[in-house]
TrEMBL record:
Family annotation (CDD domains): SF2_C_LHR
Domain of life: Bacteria
Protein name as catalogued: Ligase-associated DNA damage response DEXH box helicase
Pfam family, one: Helicase_C
Gene source species: Mucilaginibacter celer
Start and end residues of each stretch annotated as Disordered: 839-861
Length: 861
DNA sequence: GACCTGCTGCGGCTTG
């Protein structure tokens, strides 16, 4: 094959930079120059930015072989979208340097929330050749008058980190944005072709769209979603980097498994073992699952290993940005030996000096663990070293499952969202705010997206009604009449409506948080309203790794001063709940089956032998064709324990469902507890479980939805989902920047809307969406069905047990957490419970306790 | 207002 001028220039420039090291770069160049769009599957640190930027440059040079060094442009040629504004600056710098070195007089700019007003207006006057932006900022651009001009010269759009967006509403927003760019881009290219007679190989979609994605279970589908339904299949390419990353994963095995905790999730008992690893490593990242767990670990290390003061830092999403940036910079500068963090450090730039990663507690998913493990040994060819620290005994088996899954290359999928009406409504108003839209034109554009392929014309009609007249229900309220129709053009004429809309573009909603500031000025981060409300002036709490005395709260800010107290509570945040992924759960069940068959391949399984022996002795070790139920009586009542090993969300739904089905035989009220492995039904009456099991309907899928509606407070679940939907759909205004409307008011108004719709317009599309979201995300209906189906084909083993088994114990401890009034720490209560049940293997508060800091894992006082 | 272990991410500054 002839190499074009563009390729020669690029190759010459890139030669010193190890082009040959990444063979996929050549394949990418070829795909791009031949007019393909598609998906590049490459991890961070593989030069993926250049893999797309350089082919684009080569294409440009080919179009202007003699003049490219002087070629002036009057428009945007490349749009680069990333989910993280922090990434835009690094990418911009790298691109700009490349252009400078090649003598190309180009400007690379960013447009995000961080871009100054001056820069934004500069952008409006003269567009750069390359613009780096976020999905939200793209939509803000679409909300500008005469936005088509911005994109009239556009040749390629790159969606970086597509796997992070796919499966979220931000992803849907990207799909909608692309459907518009495709129309604008193709129109302009047709013009270009006529006037300049460009020689392009493909003409249907001259706008190229490329996604960059880490490995996920559904890459092919990821490409489909990105490109939409109308993209010609023969114009799509998948380029795979196929860079094998060597991983060395080791579980930390508690020395005496019989004395290791059966329950719990903090894992501090293994602190000495972890610190041994830290001491031997150059730089270590300790990943925890929650922000409060990071604080707890940081505090414990500082207390027990004071020599780490100054060379250790913490990083999580509620810490001030300035602090987080400092930590990242210090990591790069190799000034830190240890960072305790959450997944906030998952993203972003690579941390080259890191040689060891420690994961405390189950990462709950294969991909998440891979990504974290990959943070260490960040040189091409280097081996990543990651340790898994179980926080309770049985979790050790997850370590074995993780290794197995990684070996078998099992990855989670990101399921694309369908028919997110709230996002669509927002988009429609966005277009109405700028130049307005024609209904039929827009409908056909929207139909090209994967998300709205099944949108019916009548549903679209309902949405049009909704934004123009408020729909059936809200027609009397001016507040909701946003869009007007003039000669078939849907337009927003009110400046107030337009501005409010621009203020609320985006799909990320969050709880109102309180900023924590020193009395002397300077911000530490944010904590939640509910936590602050429990503080009294003079109280001490630990946050951002410091002991703080609460002074007062004023205008959404909690003022604090330094405290010398070594005791204090640690805030916890209400974040998302991460159930065990279905892929990891499946491998976990596989491991359990091996255990039941007496196979002891893994060190983890060997170590757990005493625990499994006890489980077998007291009850049973289920094989893969068996389903274990344990029945047990105590002074609290009748306990039933079920073990689907399917993740806690599914267990929550299944527990309510089965409780409901039992109560049809004999009325009773149940209390429910669950973890990722199973769930417990507890009632003070005798449960007719044998009778229930004889009925084939017990685990049946028949009447599933109906029974779920009866057994769970489906209304309440939908009402909670509706709150976010109402925000995104623009039904409530969250206030001007800096003066947010009180949470309680918003709560009340979305709740009211939910009721009004439910009563007068039950077929309302947003209400329907709320129920669907509750079913899909809260209940994981799909997994619930699959689990029920599996159980139906299994042999049910019902064991009457004398006392809690190793499987049962952690679940029953879980239910302790819900008791409202107690002054004991969880640890004390576990110990007490262990004594009262005579359960073996439950550690008394260990001898290490004297070294431990005065942390109680309690919320509030 | 509910959650009780629970991550991450963006954007906007003027009307009525």
């Amino acid at each position: 094959m002839m190499t074009s001028k563009g390729q020669q220039v690029i190759q010459q420039w890139y030669r010193e930079k190890n082009w040959e090291q990444f063979p996929f770069q050549a394949e990418m160049m070829d795909a791009y120059l031949n007019g393909y769009s598609g998906l590049l599957n490459a991890p961070t640190g593989s030069g993926k930015t250049f893999a797309l930027f350089l082919p684009f440059l080569a294409g440009f040079i080919n179009q202007h072989p003699d003049t490219f060094k002087t070629q002036q442009n009057n428009g945007l040629l490349m749009l680069w979208i990333t989910p993280l504004r922090a990434l835009t600056n690094d990418i911009r710098k790298a691109m700009q340097e490349a252009c400078n070195e090649m003598g190309l007089p180009w400007r690379i700019m960013t447009r995000t929330g961080d871009t100054s007003a001056a820069e934004k207006s500069a952008l409006k006057k003269k567009l750069p050749e390359v613009l780096l932006t976020t999905p939200e900022s793209l939509h803000l651009m679409l909300a500008q008058k005469e936005y088509p001009k911005l994109f009239s010269q556009l040749q390629v759009v790159v969606i970086d980190e597509w796997h992070e967006l796919l499966g979220t509403k931000r992803g849907v927003q990207v799909e909608l944005g692309l459907s518009k760019l495709k129309v604008l881009g193709s129109k302009s290219e047709v013009l270009n072709q006529k006037s300049k007679d460009l020689e392009l190989k493909s003409h249907d979609f001259p706008l190229k769209i490329w996604g960059i994605s880490a490995t996920i279970g559904n890459l092919e589908q990821a490409a489909e979603v990105l490109l939409g339904n109308d993209f010609p299949k023969e114009q799509i390419r998948m380029v795979r980097a196929n860079l094998e990353k060597k991983l060395d994963i080791r579980s930390i095995i508690p020395q005496n498994i019989e004395n290791y905790s059966w329950a719990g999730h903090i894992g501090l008992k293994l602190l000495p073992e972890v610190m041994e690893i830290v001491a031997k490593s150059k730089t270590t990242l300790i990943f925890t699952n929650t922000r409060s767990q990071s604080e707890i670990w940081y505090h414990a290390i500082l207390d027990n290993y004071p020599e780490y003061a100054g060379i250790m830092a913490m990083h999580h999403g509620s810490l001030d940005n300035e602090l987080r940036n400092w930590v990242e910079a210090a990591l790069h500068a190799e000034a830190l030996k240890l960072v305790v963090c959450t997944s906030s450090l998952d993203l972003g730039v690579d941390f080259r000096p890191v040689d060891t990663v420690v994961q405390v507690g189950s990462p709950k998913g294969v991909a998440r663990f891979m990504q974290r493990a990959g943070r260490s040994g960040h040189h091409p060819g280097a081996t990543s070293l990651a340790y898994f620290v179980p926080t309770h005994s049985l979790e050790l088996l997850e370590g074995a499952a993780l290794k197995e899954a990684i070996k078998a290359k099992i990855f989670e999928s990101r399921d694309p969202l369908l028919l997110a009406m709230d996002v669509l409504i927002q988009y429609m108003v966005t277009l109405a705010v700028s130049d307005g839209f024609k209904a039929e034109e827009l409908f056909s554009e929207i139909k090209t997206t994967y998300a709205f392929a099944d949108l019916s014309r009548s549903e679209f009609g309902q949405l049009l009604d909704f934004i123009t007249t408020g729909g059936k229900t809200l027609a009397q309220y001016d507040e909701f009449l946003k869009v007007e129709v003039e000669n078939g053009l849907y337009k927003v004429n009110s400046r107030r409506v337009a501005m409010r809309h621009r203020l609320s573009i985006g799909t990320i909603t969050s709880e109102l948080s309180i900023r924590v500031k020193w009395l002397s000025g300077g911000s530490l981060g944010t904590i939640e309203e509910s936590f602050v409300s429990k503080l009294k002036p003079g109280n001490t709490f630990w946050f951002a790794g410091r002991s703080l005395e609460f002074v007062r709260v004023k205008e959404m800010t909690a003022y604090v001063k330094k405290s010398n107290s070594t005791k204090g509570i640690i805030p916890s945040w209400n974040g998302g709940r991460m159930p065990l992924s279905s892929q990891l759960a499946a491998v976990f069940r596989l491991k359990l089956d091996e255990v039941a068959h007496g196979l002891e391949r893994d060190v983890e399984v060997k170590a757990l032998k005493p625990l499994f022996d006890l489980q077998q002795k007291l009850s049973h070790l289920p094989q893969s064709h068996e389903f274990l139920i344990e029945s047990f009586k105590s002074k609290e009542g009748h306990h039933l324990l079920f073990y689907p090993f399917e993740g806690r969300l599914v267990h929550e739904g299944m527990a309510s469902l089965l409780a409901y089905r039992i109560s049809k035989i004999k009325p009773a009220s149940f209390s429910i507890a669950m973890n990722d492995y199973g769930f417990e039904l507890l009632t003070d009456e005798d449960i007719p479980i044998e009778e229930a099991l004889e009925d084939s309907a017990f685990f049946s899928l028949d009447n599933l939805i109906d029974d779920i509606q009866h057994s769970l407070n489906a209304n309440e679940m939908a009402r909670r989902k509706f709150r976010d939907i109402a925000h995104i759909g623009g039904l409530v205004f969250t206030g001007y920047p800096g003066q947010q409307i009180k949470n309680k008011h918003l709560q009340a108004s979305t709740s009211l809307l939910f009721e009004v719709f439910s009563e007068y317009e039950p077929d309302n599309l947003l209400i329907r969406q709320a129920y669907n979201e509750a079913l899909a995300f809260q209940l994981e209906e799909f997994r619930l069905r699959a689990a029920l189906q599996r159980i139906q084909s299994q042999n049910i083993i019902l064991k009457v047990i004398e006392r809690p088994t190793p499987f049962a114990f952690p679940i029953m401890v879980d239910s302790l957490g819900r008791e409202k009034l107690t002054t004991e720490t969880l640890e004390e209560r576990i110990a007490k419970m262990a004594r009262s049940y005579g359960a073996e293997g439950v550690a008394e508060p260990a001898e290490r306790k004297s070294r431990k800091p005065g942390i109680t894992r309690k919320k509030g006082f």
